[in-house]
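Posting this for the archive.
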Amino acid sequence: MTKSKISTKYFVEMALLVAIILLMAFTPIGYIRTGGLSITLIVVPVAVGAVTLGPAAGAVLGTVFGMTSFIQCFGMEPFGTALLGINPFFTFIVCFLPRIAEGFLTGYIYRGLRKTKIPSGVSVTIANLCCPVLNTAFFMSALVTLFAGTMRETYGMTKVIPFVAAFVGINGVIEAAVCFVIGTAISAALKKALRYQ
């Protein structure tokens, strides 16, 4: 296969995944609203891109994810809107950095796994599971680090700790399960169809 054909397939898939992220972000497809928490399914196309196209693509898709998350803070998502009202700069960081890191690292995790004797299918599955786990871990770490003082002052630690536990327990598990099933299936199918290694 020529380099130009590979490049064309790369950019076509990238454009498709960006379009999917945008579609999911601004329709009910991308988020499951549960009271004050939002479970995002946008980790799926980020994981798929990171696995099939590599770390750089994962970072780009994570950036698009972060951009849509930040836009949600302008009145579209109650929790994000509240964060924006407290500190717009910290909110920007919380929305962008975890998502960029998750996509980038997922790509490297898959790349690293492919250098081992682990079968390709298992590598795809592990990488797709890592993406939502990294998203939850990085997002909550950034949120607690940057907004801990405000959260303590406003709600007290007796409410902050249950919130963090609920976010990780509910959001993290559902996002991981969805990405584990759907992301793995899509990634495996794309890699087979497009003959990515």
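Helices lie at 3-25, 43-53, 55-72, 78-86, 88-114, 120-155, 157-194. The CA atoms of residues 31 and 40 lie 5 Å apart.
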